[in-house]
Amino acid sequence: MKSLANWIMRRRAQGLLKILEPYLPAEGLAVDVGSGTGHNAEVLRKATSLRVSEFDVADIHWVGPGPTIIVDDKLPLGSDSAACVLILYVLHYCPEPAALLADAARVSPSKVLVLQTTYKSPLARQVLRVQEFFFGRFGYHMARIAGLVPAGTCPLQPTRYFNRDSLEFVFAQAGLRILERNTFSHPSWPLRCDLYQLRKG
Questions:
Q1: Cα separation of 40 and 55, whole Å?
Q2: Cα 108–chain centre separation
Q3: What is the per-residue pLDDT across 69-95, written as a single tens digit (0 to 9) for each?
Q4: Domain 2-200: what homologous superfamily?
Q5: Distance between CA atoms of 73 and 176, rounded to whole angstroms?
Q6: How confident is the model over 3-14, as pLDDT tens digits?
Q7: Distance (Å, rounded) from C-alpha 171 to C-alpha 189?
Q8: CA pair distance 132, 122, nearest whole angstrom
Q9: What confidence tier does 167 reach under pLDDT thresholds 50, 70, 90?
């Protein structure tokens, strides 16, 4: 089961890389915030020339060196020390997403990449809740039962669900400007998968 789970997660990470690749810097430090299982960072290291540092609020990595733990939405890195910060499907877990984004922009003022699912209607919000349950908490507990992650409190507890307006309001709260927004979901699907390229100011 572990080999199948790793194959699935690597395929997912490779799909994310195809979305991110046009926006990634050629070199430097990439900061993966909410690195989870470690598969996204693993694929980035193999496919690019970037150095990748992983950060999360809990250590649930399956592959790679594992994350540095974040406390109080603060990244333990110097200002302007990274070529980019990646925040992939993470903000709905954050108690204070604007604070995390502001600190990400401190670390990489010119390039913060956010990939986030948003809902289009009140009904779609319920679809997002169900999707999040299966890909988040249910998936975590299945991985725990399979011995892929240690026993403990599930860190994948959503604090909110975003529509596009509420997400972009959080960007403004954090002092970030949208340079580009691209949608990677079918127009008829009630949820959006949006990639934002953000910068400070």
A1: 12
A2: 16
A3: 998 889 999 999 999 999 999 999 999
A4: Vaccinia Virus protein VP39 (3.40.50.150)
A5: 16
A6: 777 888 899 999
A7: 24
A8: 15
A9: very high
At which residue do the structure tokens 């990595």 appear? 61
Mapping DSSP to helix (H, G, I), strand (E, B) and coil, where does residue 41 land? helix
Distance CA 17, CA 144 (A): 26
Q: Is 64 left (phi over 0), alpha (psi -120 to 50) or beta?
A: left
Helices (H), the chain: 2-20, 39-47, 97-107, 122-132, 139-145, 164-173
Pair 83, 30: CB distance under 8 Å: yes
Domain residue ranges in the chain:
2-200
Give me the sign of the Cα torsion angle 48, 111, 180, 68. positive
